[in-house]
Design brief:
Elements: E1 2-5, H1 10-19, E2 23-26, H2 37-47, E3 50-53, E4 72-74
Parallel strand pairs: 1-2, 1-3, 3-4
């Protein structure tokens, strides 16, 4: 298949599709990363490429009737999971807080997020 990846997908998506034998161009490679939506779709139509994007503006079939284009794929990604280092940590033992009891001291955690033993 012939795809054009929008700038919001980066080079990794292009590499994955190319590795699977698809004909892929990107808006960045063609100097369209700052172009209007209309200009990007115009390039896709001229090249008979399916646009792949994260931009929800392209999901509106009233603005972008499907019959006019080779295809428009709007990807939705799942919400990012918080990393283990971004979880609240106990002020006394510095471990991620997974319960209301500090594992180091067996003290009850305060609403502020530390164990009782850390408060003076």
């Amino acid at each position: 298949m012939r795809f054009k990846l929008d700038a919001n997908l980066g080079v990794r998506g292009a590499a994955l599709l190319r590795a699977r034998g698809h004909d892929v161009s990107t808006t960045e490679e063609e100097g369209l990363s700052l172009a209007s939506d209309a200009a990007v779709l115009s390039a896709c139509a001229a090249e008979r490429r399916t646009l792949v994007t994260l931009d929800l503006d392209f999901a509106n079939p009233l603005h972008y009737p499907p019959q006019r284009y080779a295809g428009i794929v709007v990807l939705r990604t799942p919400p990012a999971r918080p990393s283990p280092t971004s979880r609240p940590r106990c002020a006394r033992c510095s471990r991620p807080r997974t319960s209301t009891i500090c594992r180091a001291s067996s003290s009850w955690s305060t609403p502020a997020g530390g164990c009782e033993g850390s408060r003076s």
